[in-house]
Amino acid sequence: MTRAERASAVCKILARTYPNAHCELDYTNPLELLVATILSAQCTDKRVNIVTKELFRVCRSAEDYVALPQEQLEDLIKTAGFYRSKAKNIKACCKDLVEKHGSEVPRTMEALTALAGVGRKTANVVLGNAFDINVGVVVDTHVQRLSARLGLTKNSDPVKIEQDLIKLIPQPQWTLFSHWLIWHGRRRCYARKPDCPGCELKEICPSAGKVGK
Q: What is the per-residue pLDDT across 23-59, written as a single tens digit (0 to 9) for each?
């Protein structure tokens, strides 16, 4: 099986396995998703959703984040970890939105990554989920781990992994593909002890039965 054939088979199997796969961060608009994604660095989506429940009640616009005192923002997001740097990034990002984009979240990779504290991964999350624009593939720790185990990449750098994946996956599925791998990583292909015997991909996975021994 070639890498392209395996990628195609992975998409078909995971599409059947997770027909409702979606972003598990809670949000109702692009700004909320942008802030939640910044908060999700080194933090679980479940914890972020707990934090943003109160945060999004307090801050409803980019101007609200800019006006909120740094200490108050830090206190609201404290349990998400790295709260000082995240608060700084959120305030700086929202300042950019207010001053350069009329308080609206932009819809291009270039404009998003030019915002303070926003990298390519965050931009891909926002573009793919808030705007249904497939510019790239989100490469988080799950996508990084599973794409290597499935033999879809030999790279360890997220940027290079993304380039490998966009050559293998049809563009309309780029956002969905990351959701499929993330869901599978959280539910079956764990980091330490993956459930290879129960895995839907075991017949085509070159790592099946070889991880965690």
A: 999 999 999 999 999 999 999 999 999 999 999 999 9
Sorted by sequence, the CB contacts under 8 Å of residue 194 that are 6+ apart come out as: 149, 188, 211, 212
Residue 26 annotated to the active site = no
Q: What is the pTM of this model?
A: 0.95
Calculate the alpha carbon distances from 98 to 9, 61, 69, 77, 173 in Å: 44, 9, 16, 21, 32
* From 26, 45, 64, 140, the catalytic residue: 140
What does each C-alpha distance from 100 to 59, 106, 116 come to in angstroms? 19, 10, 12
Query: Is residue 193 annotated as part of the catalytic site, yes or no?
Result: no
Alpha-carbon distance of 178 to 144, in angstroms, equals 10
Is there a contact between 34 and 118 (Cβ–Cβ < 8 Å)? yes
Each residue of 94-148: pLDDT tens digit? 999 999 999 999 999 999 999 999 999 999 999 999 999 999 999 999 999 999 9
Catalytic choice (86, 91, 96, 121): 121
